[in-house]
Amino acid sequence: MIPETDNLTDLTMEQPTESGFSSNLDLWTYLSIEVILYALFLVIYLNYRVNDSETFLVAGKNLSLKIGTIYTLLLLSGSLTMSYTVSNYRSGNKGSASFLLGFTSVLGLSAFIIFCIQHLSLINAGLNPGSAVLTEMGNSYSIYFGLYFLMTAFQAVQVLSVVITLIIMIFYTVPKCSCGLKPETLVKLGYFWHFAVILWLFIFPLFYFN
What we know:
By secondary structure, the chain is mostly helical. It has one domain (27-208): Up-down Bundle (Four Helix Bundle (Hemerythrin (Met), subunit A)), CATH 1.20.120.80. It contains 9 helices and no strands. It has helices at residues 5-13, 20-23, 25-51, 53-60, 65-90, 94-124, 132-137, 139-173, 183-208. Helix 3 (25-51) crosses helix 4 (53-60), helix 4 (53-60) crosses helix 8 and helix 6 runs antiparallel to helix 8 (139-173). It is elongated. The relative contact order is 0.14.
């Protein structure tokens, strides 16, 4: 039996859809690289921490637990508002989604400023990698602060890159915009934000709770 013309056209035009994994291959590739990278950092950290725990305990006292806690709270608040952003946009409430994107951006920028305050205080004290002060203090101190600057810098750059993207996305979520932004785009952006938060929750106790 020959199918009708309309049905034949529908069959011809039908395209296979991508699976969830293949459509997010860039996301999973990026996250996999980050997991491997931070796993290597952790191995190096634990090796030196076990062999010279006393030095790591002393070095950790140069970090501000108050600043680290504020940074943590800002990131966690951003995760909450990012989740509400996606749910509001999916329900068609573009106005609220746009506002929440802006609010999440403010939280992210505030967190980045807090990050800079912590690092500038360490630099002013001569505790940045390669400084003469750290060289005189010994190899273990250099390893500690080298790992701290490296691991936190990677994490902060991810936060800043997500914030920049969020600011751009605000213009695509305003009610007057007819650009047809897919909710999946915000979902993927949320994954990047949440992963940056997870990285920090992994870094925070390692360095601030010695």
